[in-house]
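TASK: fixed-backbone design
INPUT:
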């Protein structure tokens, strides 16, 4: 199993702090997510098998503007299954990205080619499949819709696929290519986990051609999405007022987080409205210094860096600012001590 953010119990045990004392900024999930009332989830949704004629498909088609959609148990279900729908292929994936993509394609026997995002264009003609996240997680790199559609056309001309993970795109829906997914070989993955803050409901959608969705549904089997999750998903997708106000808030909070980090010597190298990505040589020290104060971030060892999600309330923002100040002071003392030791060694 690959390492992911959100493992609070593990962090509590490692650093000796009770779970309730932690501030989890490791996941990029909207900390003020859409709220479902208990009354909205009927008893029938718990004690009857899910039925497709419940209005969820219509709500999803309206929200995404996509012609054909398949609900799945989180986009992870699709990430694990899509590689099984192709014969052995040469698959390009982001060198620094959501690592489940590379893992699942390799697990299914494909030849995986890790690429820097800047190298996608040059490598494209040597690939059968390209997997791109828009925006990329954790670096925040983005792709214009026209560029993605051009890449898709080139791949499709030889039977290839372009798979786009749009997990973090909901705050900028104009950047999505969802409305073009009736084109063969163009596959978009969406989720209610990040923008809607409904990660626990395990709701995702695959947007693709009817033929591909039919094949994917055969692999996944019936009742891929639980009844209560379908109810919550439909209600959240229809709540346009909440979506509009949340996009405004996330834009403000994303900028606020970037400014806060930069003011403490951690200027983000990338990010989006839901997270900021800091690439520094001492990333592990930053991650651990914050963890010792009960703040969990997402550390990336392959390219030393730390991803920060958004705090929820004023108290959490204040706690992060205090922790960043303390961490910076501690690191400066440690760096001064190391410099002094080096000078003494030379003398």
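OUTPUT:
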């Amino acid at each position: 199993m690959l390492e992911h953010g959100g493992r609070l119990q593990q962090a509590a045990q490692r650093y000796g702090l009770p779970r309730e004392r932690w501030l989890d900024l490791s996941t990029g999930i909207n900390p003020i997510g859409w709220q479902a009332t208990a009354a909205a989830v009927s008893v029938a949704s718990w004690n009857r098998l899910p039925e497709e004629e419940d209005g969820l498909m219509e709500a999803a088609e309206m929200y995404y503007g996509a012609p054909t959609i398949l609900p799945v148990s989180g986009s992870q279900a699709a990430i694990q299954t899509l590689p099984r729908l192709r014969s052995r292929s040469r698959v390009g994936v982001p060198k620094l990205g959501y690592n489940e993509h590379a893992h699942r394609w390799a697990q299914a026997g494909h030849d995986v080619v890790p690429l820097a995002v800047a190298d996608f264009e040059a490598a494209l003609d040597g690939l059968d499949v390209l997997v791109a996240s828009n925006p990329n997680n954790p670096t925040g790199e983005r792709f214009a819709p026209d560029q993605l559609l051009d890449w898709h056309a080139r791949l499709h001309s030889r039977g290839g696929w372009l798979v786009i993970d749009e997990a973090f795109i909901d705050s900028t829906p104009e950047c999505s290519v969802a409305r073009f997914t009736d084109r063969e070989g163009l596959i978009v993955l969406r989720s209610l986990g990040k923008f809607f803050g409904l990660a626990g409901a395990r709701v995702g959608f695959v947007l693709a051609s009817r033929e591909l969705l039919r094949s994917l549904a055969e692999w996944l089997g019936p009742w891929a999405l639980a009844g209560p999750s379908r109810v919550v998903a439909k209600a959240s997708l229809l709540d346009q007022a909440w979506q509009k106000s949340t996009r405004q808030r996330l834009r403000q909070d994303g900028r606020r987080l970037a400014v806060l980090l930069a003011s403490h010597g951690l200027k983000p190298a990338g990010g989006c409205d839901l997270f900021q990505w800091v690439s520094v040589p001492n990333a592990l020290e930053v991650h651990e210094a914050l963890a010792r104060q009960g703040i969990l971030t997402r550390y990336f060892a392959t390219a030393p860096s730390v991803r920060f999600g958004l705090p929820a309330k004023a108290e959490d923002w204040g706690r992060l600012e205090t922790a960043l100040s303390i961490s910076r002071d501690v690191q400066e003392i440690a760096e001064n001590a190391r410099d002094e030791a080096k000078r003494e060694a030379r003398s």
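COMMENT: The mean pLDDT is 91.
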